[in-house]
User: What shape does this take?
Amino acid sequence: MLLAGGQGSRLGVLTSKLAKPAVAFGGKYKIIDFPLSNCINSGVDTVGVLTQYRPLRLNQHIGIGMPWDLDRNIGGVTVLPPYEKSTDSSWYTGTANAIYQNLEFMEYYNPDYVLILSGDHIYKMDYEVMLDYHKASKAAVTLATYEVPMEEASRFGVVITDDEGCIQEFEEKPEHPRSNKASMGIYIFNWKVLKNALQVMKDVPSCDFGKHIIPYCHEQGERICAYDFKGYWKDVGTLGSYWEANMELVDIIPEFNLYEEFWRIYTKSDALPPQYIADHTKIGKCIIGEGTEIYGEVEHSVIGSAVTIEEGAVVKDSIIMNGAVIGKNCVIEKAIIAENTVIGDGAVLGTGDYAPSEYNPKVYAFDLVTIGEKSVIPANVKIGKNTAIFGETTLEDYPNGELKSGGSLIKVGDLA
Amino acid sequence: MRAIGIILAGGNSNRMGGLSAKRAVAAMPMAGSYRSIDFSLSNMTNSHIQKVAVFTQYNSRSLNEHLNSSKWWDFGRKQGGLYLFTPTITTTNSYWYKGTADALYQNISFLKNSHEPYVVIASGDGVYKLDYNKVLEEHIATGADITIVCKEIKPEEDDISRFGVVNLSKDGWVEAFEEKPLVAQSNLASIGVYVIRRRQLIELLENCAKEGRSDFVKDIIIRYKDVKKIHGYVMDSFWRNIGSIESYFKTNMEFLKKDIRDYFFRTHPDVYSKVEDLPPAKYNGDAVVKNSLVASGCIINGTVENSILFKKVYVGNNCVIKNSIILNDVHIGDNSYIENCIVESRDTLRANTEYIGEPDKIKVVVEKNFRYAL
Assistant: This one.
C-alpha cells in the first residue's frame, strides 16, 4: 500500500498543483517511480496507490501501471482515492485512516503480509529481503530503520532496540535521542495484526501509523522488529534536500547510481528521441534527458526531457524539468524550474545578495530560485535568491525589471 | 479499419557491409534511439491501421527482440494486433520464403481470414512519415488496381539505380517500371509502399504461385503492368532508404539538422519505439560535446563531435570521436580516437586504439573484445 496522497507543502510552488510523489526527479523520473520500481523489482506485484491531494497528474502518470509492469491480470496497480459512503463520508485523515478506509481492497486479495510505503523517498530497496527478515524474526510488525547522524535524530521518530533487533521503545522527535535509528515510514504487517489494529483504532482522529498503530501494537505485546536498512535513502521533503539529492546524481560515481543494470528504475516516458548538443556549447558535469536540445552552456545541473536551452544561455547548479525553454543569453544559477516554464531571453536568475524569503522563509530557503510549472518569465529581468514564482508574469510585475532576493510572485494556484 | 498492414522486413543487403551480419536491415538502429522498422510501424499505427503483419526471414533475432511486445506502437488491441511471420514448415511446403510474393503466399490464410477490404504493404527500411490513409483515398478515387508510392530522388540524396524506377503518365498512371536499372529513365523511385484491394492481392498471389513465380515487384507489379491499372502516388516529404552503408550513414547524419529533427521528433505524429527505461545521459567533468546526438543511458567523459551516440554508449577519458556513429551499448576505452566510423553495437573498443575511416569511405568497426562486467 503506497501512500501518495500528501501535498508536501515544504516543496512550495512545485507541489501547488500536484502531489509530491508526482514531482519530477533526476531528469526523467517522478518521485513515485522509486517506490513503484522497488515494488516490481522486489516481486510485489499487487499495489494500491492511495491518492488524495491533487491526484490528476499522479493518475495520468500511473495509468494502468504499464511502465512498471504492473498491468496484470491478477493484482497490478490500483489507484485508491477517498470515496463517498452512505454515512460518514470523509477524506483520508491520516496515514492509518487512509489504509483503514481501504480494508476492502486488501480483503479482496487476502494477503499474508501488507507492506506500507510512502511515495516520497528516493531509494532502492529490496522489500523481499525485508520480508524475509520479518519472517525469520517471527515479528508481527517490522519497520525499516535508517541510521541518521545522532545530532539529526531529534527530527525523526527513533526506535530503541534490543540485541535481536526487537523494538523496546519509541520516541517521536525526542529532544535528547537515545538512539539514531530513525523510522523510514516503511512497515511490514502480518495482515491479521494490521486488520485488527485498524479496526480497533478506527475512531481515533487522524489515525497515523507512527503515532497510533505502532504504539497500539506495542502495547498489545506484539513483536515489533527493526529492519536496519543500509544503502542510499533520501527524504526529499524540502527544497534544499530535493535540490541536493538531484545534484548528487551528477557526481562521477554517484552514491545513488541510476546506471546499474540491476534494479532499474522505471518511469512513464513520453519522449524518446536522442538529445542534441549543438556547436559552441559547453557541457560540464550534468545529466540530460531525452529529446532535449542544448545550444548554450550547462554546468553541474540536472536537465529533464524535451528541454530547450538556447544560444548563449548559461545554466549552473540548477534543476530544469521537462519541456522548459531557457531563452537566449539567460544566466541561471541555483534554480529549480518546473515543467514547461518559459524563461525569456536575457533573464538572470539567482543573482543579488542574500535575503530571507518574505513569503515563506521556512520553505524558500537554501538560496534557491523556485519557479512553478508553466510559468512565464519576461525577457531581461533579474531575479534574486530565495524567490518563488508561479504563473505567467509580465514585465509590470518586476519593478525596475527586478525581483529582489526573498521576493515572490504567485499568480496561480491555491495560494495566489 | 479499412486496411490491414504488411511490412516486408525479411531482407538482407550486401551493401550493408558487416552491419547486416547480425540483423536484418529493418532492425538497423536509426537516429540515436530508434530502429528502422519503427518508422513504418509508427506510420501504420498513426494511420489507424490496427492489424499489421511483419514478414521476416533473414537473421530475425534482433528484429524479434525489438518487436517482443506490440504495446510500444499501440498495437495489441482486441481487434487486430502485430503478427510476426517467419518461414515455417507445413505439410505442403518446407522451403524458405523464395521471394516477397512467396512470403505473402505462404501466409495467404492471414489475408483470407481478414475482413478489411484493403492491404497496405510497406518495407522496413524506409525513414519517413506518411499517412497511408491519403494513399488509400487516392487509390479509391482513381479506381486503381494497385497504387505505388513514389518519390523523386535527387542525385545528392541517393543513387536512383538502387531502386525500382517508375515513369508516370500525366494522370499518374505507371507507364514503365524498371527494377534497379543500369540507366534510369526517370528520377522517380518506388519506395516500396503499395496499396491494393485484399481480394485482388489474393488473386494475384495465387496466380503467381501457380506459375511458380515468387517476387512481388518482378512477378506482380512489372508482369501485370499493362494488364492492371497501376497508379503512382507521389509523396514529396522526407524519405530515405538505409539499405547501403553510405545511405545509412548519411541518413543518420541528417538528423543533426534542426529541421529534420523538428520534423521527426517535434511534429505530430510521433515516431514510436521500444521503451528501454534507460537513465538520462550523463556528462562528466571533462566531456566536450559538439553538434551531436546523444541517446539515453550514455556516459561521456571524452570529446564527441558531429557524431551520433546510440543508447548506452560509454566514452572513456580523453577519447575523441569525430564524424562517427556509435551504435547501442558500445564501450570505448580511454584515449581512443575514432573518426569516420560506424561502430557495431555491443562492441568493446580497447583503450589507446585508433579507428579512422575516410569521409567518403566510412569504416565499419566490428570488434569482439571481451568486456569485463562491472
About this structure: The longest strand of chain B covers residues 188-197. The two ends of chain B are 49 Å apart (CA to CA). Chain B is about 20% helix and 30% strand. Chain B has a mean pLDDT of 93.
